[in-house]
Amino acid sequence: MLFSKQGQGGVEWIIAFLGNPGPQYEGTRHNAGFMAGEAMARRLGVRIDRLRFRALTARAEIGGRGVLLMLPQTFMNLSGEAVGQAARFYKVPPERVIVVSDEMALAPGTIRVRPSGSAGGHNGLRSIIACLGTEGFPRIRLGVGEPPRADYEAADWVLGKFRGQDAELMAAAAERAAEAAESYVLNGPERTMNSYNTRKQGPA
Predict the structure, then answer these.
(1) Three-state DSSP class for 44?
(2) Which of 10, 100, 127, 149 could anchor a disulfide with 80, C-beta 3.0 to 4.6 Å?
(3) H or E element: which one contains 86?
(4) What is the secondary structure of 117-173 as a DSSP string?
């Protein structure tokens, strides 16, 4: 796919926070990305509430750069339909489309920043890879931990809600993921990875 190096309509970056819409999914592991989106909205003083591109969106600025914040409303497995539509409209290249999502392979309270990578079994990332036509977009993954038993269905686990200490760890991780997304826009991948690819402890 072809993308220009200049944004259209004042949008140079897209930050997409993945989750499932609807109150029944609030606070679930699969909605860790939405939690980070809420933290980002607070940081930037905006409300992500304008329905465009099959997503709730808000335009914000980070260091003078126009940024589109997105909460896709397609359900997780079709996230790429929203992200791809916005990227094509604004002609934002994949390397400036930051995707924030949950990750079972990481412990709760942990985030990982990468400039590219595979879907790693995550259906939302798989959809975005298919719609952008590349794995070459940055992602910020929030650890939600693995199921406690081998016979525990992964789908049931990610649709379960955070409890106790995990809820505290995830609230802190969501804030840190929002900070990391802002840093990625301002400072690029290397400085951001050096600063944020460590365990962040939750409240004492």
Answers:
(1) helix
(2) 127
(3) helix 79-90
(4) ---TT-HHHHHHHHHHT-S-S-EEEEE----SSTTS-HHHHHTSBP-HHHHHHHHHH
**Model pLDDT for residues 4-57, shown as the tens digit of each residue:** 333 445 899 999 999 999 998 988 888 999 999 999 999 999 999 999 999 999
Q: Are strands 50-52 and 65-72 parallel, antiparallel or unpaired?
A: unpaired
Question: What CA–CA distances, in Å, run from 25 to 18, 21, 138?
Answer: 12, 7, 25
C-alpha to C-alpha distance for 3 and 116, rounded to whole angstroms: 17
In a domain, 162, yes or no: yes
Residue 2 resides in a domain? no
Q: Which residue has the tokens 């400039």?
A: 115
pTM for this entry: 0.88
CA 44 to chain centre: 16
Q: What pLDDT digit, counting tens, does each position of 77-135 carry?
A: 999 999 999 999 999 999 999 999 999 889 988 999 999 998 888 999 999 999 999 99
Total domains, the chain: 1
**Domain hosting residue 98, numbered range:** 13-196
Q: Tokens 């995990």 appear where?
A: 166
Residue 6 domain flag: no
